[in-house]
Amino acid sequence: MGDSLTSSTLAADAPAKNGVPPSPTPAVPLSLVRDAVLTHCTGLVGDGGAIDASSITARPIGLGLGFLSSVVAATFVPTVVTAAADAAAPPADAVGGEAPPPTHHTVIVKVAPSRADAPPMLDLRFHATEVAFYSQLRPLLTTDVVPAVYGGAVDDATDAGVLVMEDMTPRGGRVLPFADGLPAGAALAAATALGRLHADIDAALRGGGNDGRGGRPPAWVCRPPDVAARRAATVAGLFDDAAARLAAAGRAGGVHLDAAEWVPSPTAPQRPPAFATVVNGDCWSNNLFFRHGGAVADGGGADPWAVVGIVDWQVASWDAGAADIAFLWLSSVDPAVRRRPGATAAYLDAYARGLGSVGSRVGRPRLVTDWHDALPWALVMCMTMLEVFEPACLARLEAAVEDAVAARRGEGPLVLTP
Hints:
This protein is α+β, with helices and mostly antiparallel strands. Helices cover 36% and strands 15% of the residues. A hairpin with a 6-residue loop joins strand 6 and strand 7. It is globular, with a radius of gyration of 22 Å.
């Protein structure tokens, strides 16, 4: 591997459009990855161990679009293992013996560029938000779906920085192919996991306990009306551009879409949600790690799907918990699954059960209004993901448009009754 991960390398998985490569991702020098690993990962090698700096390698992961950050998987070898590599490993005691130390570790290194290098619409403190989430809120949580963070830093002036986090794949988790759409079982598992996490966050913000009214937003999170302002500034242009391109491709179902009708205005009155908390804000399937064949938490038998990781908290904000589940349902689930009779009701019920499992007393009837209020923004988020949908699943985006427009009329598979 060379001295740096170049823009072209990091963007290798991103599709070209009309022969034009995607927006370049800022280069991530291998020296930066090495410094991050050596600074923040010594605790992973145990007492007396150290990290062999020459062993550190890195490879880009994720979409490689690079609008907000670049993510690499860094692998390294402890020197205690390196030194013993030529010696025969002692046999492990078959009963209670200690296994030999791991020969390598893998961590996730997330690098955020300076805001000066970001497009104007993204000139916001995304990295500072994520660092605050992991450093201030994550340690208070009892649920285990948010990855551990080994260290990080942020420049308050530029928002540039780095986070070093747990690799979720050893938990048996994997990101399901977006083009396939989530199957019903995975979607229900995600709704339940998000309910548990949202209720856990709410209890943490209260200092324990959960009476269903929602805690107070922490100082670092984007809050109403800031949420509406950030949304309007960030996505209105993307929405109209995507709408025009869909229409030109004949993939809008004959529906005219205008950002002015869908993107919340910063000055418009906003109905307070029945249940608000810190939400992920970018909750689509590529930010969830699933395991097939997990065990039910209450010991009630085998559950074919479980969520073991929820990642990417850069756009975390104070919003209705329904905002996360609505976006996931509209963006990432096979429309054939979403349109089955009773499927949306079962999905919201799974979320309500997740809330209740951590002590929240927010019932399903109170969530229905939040659900309907969240659907317009869920469609807006889908429209801003046109480059993700475009390679293989424009039909799913078209279905999302049809279902969201129908819901605005009080019709279709997304409409629920209390």
